[in-house]
Specification:
The complex is a heterodimer of chains A (114) and B (227).
Chain A lengths: L18 H11 L5 E2 H8 L3 H13 L3 E3 L9 E4 L1 H19 L4 H10 L1
Antiparallel strand pairs in A: 1-3, 2-3
Chain B lengths: L1 H31 L5 H48 L4 H14 L11 H47 L4 H49 L13
Helix pairs in contact in B: 1-2, 1-5, 2-3, 4-5
Classes of the chains: A mainly alpha (114), B mainly alpha (227).
Chain lengths: 114, 227
């Protein structure tokens, strides 16, 4: 399968993202290609302190790997197999949610009459 | 589900738009009431002017809501474009988080979500339901007053004088349609919001599992016990 190219977004991410939401976005952004810290900051709309904390956690937890040694302040990150596993779990959650809504009409009727 | 999630956002937006429609309805009623005696007209003016005065206060919230819909539209377009080309859709995750953002009450800026926060969101939803019920009952009471004091006398005089009943009938129709539509849109939105909350609960469990795995690095996230 051809890896997707993550393009810069035409819309801004929500300003009130939780750290769990930021982790998913970081894992997803680096799953196909290695990304620099500045690329991640620019495209995910994260501040320096915030991204440092998130990257520290993801690297320490083994979900991210630093592909190159830091050279002149440039850091390149990639999602590890362990990180892909975590992302898979998230996608399973999403898939379950998007495929298990067939009984909502019955619930709507119950709510309206109840 | 994608269409339903967009309906959810539309419902979120329309709860604000309905407010504007209600103001418009009052304005239309004002024009129709011009033939009333002066005392009743003065009361009608006071009743009508209140929602018009409140309208500017709703501007900021309406603007934010329309902004969210605009962003969601751009994200959906991005997702649709991606669906034509590939199986993995990167924009979907961000779209989901945008829905989370819409769900959160404005005063919850906590960095770390927890089970407790889901409860807070549920409580927020219950409070919102209560507010809408009160609002609809209040609007309904005002409409009943208008029907009894204005539309019914208009009906009777129209029947006595043999004039057409089209205008009062249009008003009655509008009142009923707006009230019923308000209820349906709100309860559909509420149903979808509750589904998103369940998903959010699952997402928090996912995040907490990641955090706990940090203290147990042998966990491989493949669903099996570490060896």
């Amino acid at each position: 399968m051809k890896p997707p190219t993550i393009r810069p977004r035409s819309w801004t991410p929500g300003p009130r993202r939780t750290k769990y939401e930021r982790w998913v976005e970081l894992l997803e952004a680096c799953v196909w290609e290695s990304r620099t810290q500045s690329w991640l900051m620019r495209h995910l709309g994260l501040k320096t302190q915030m991204i440092k904390e998130d990257l520290d956690f993801l690297v320490d937890a083994g979900l991210f790997e630093q592909v190159d040694e830091p050279e002149a302040g440039i850091y390149v990150f990639k999602t590890t197999e362990k990180g892909r596993g975590a992302l898979d779990q998230f996608y399973t959650l999403v898939t379950q949610f998007f495929t298990s809504g067939h009984d909502s009409k019955r619930h709507a009727v119950l709510l309206l009459i109840g | 589900m994608m269409r339903r999630s967009h309906s959810f956002l539309m419902g979120h937006i329309f709860s604000s738009v309905f407010g504007m429609y209600i103001v418009m309805l009052w304005v239309i009623l004002l024009i129709a009431m011009m033939g009333l005696p002066f005392e009743l007209l003065s009361i009608a003016f006071v009743v009508i002017i209140i929602p018009i005065l409140i309208a500017p206060l709703r501007y900021k919230s309406a603007k934010n809501r329309f902004g969210a819909l605009q962003q969601a539209g751009a994200a959906l377009k991005e997702i649709e474009d991606a669906l034509d080309e590939r199986h993995v859709v990167p924009g979907l995750t961000s779209y989901i988080f945008l829905i989370f953002d819409v769900l959160r009450p404005a005063d919850t800026l906590n960095d770390v979500p927890s089970e407790n926060d889901v409860e807070k969101l549920r409580k927020h939803l219950t409070n919102l339901t209560r507010k809408v019920i009160i609002e609809v009952i209040f609007q309904g009471a005002l409409y009943i007053l208008l029907i009894v004091n204005f539309l019914i006398p208009e009906f009777l005089s129209a029947i006595e004088q043999g004039t057409p009943l089209l205008v009062p009938l249009v008003f009655l129709g509008m009142i009923i349609v707006i009230l019923v539509a308000r209820w349906i849109v709100f309860f559909y939105w509420r149903l979808l919001a509750r589904r998103w909350l369940n998903f959010y609960q699952g997402f928090i469990a996912w995040g907490e599992e990641l955090e706990s795995a940090f203290s147990n690095p042998t966990n491989t996230y493949d669903g099996r016990e570490p060896t």
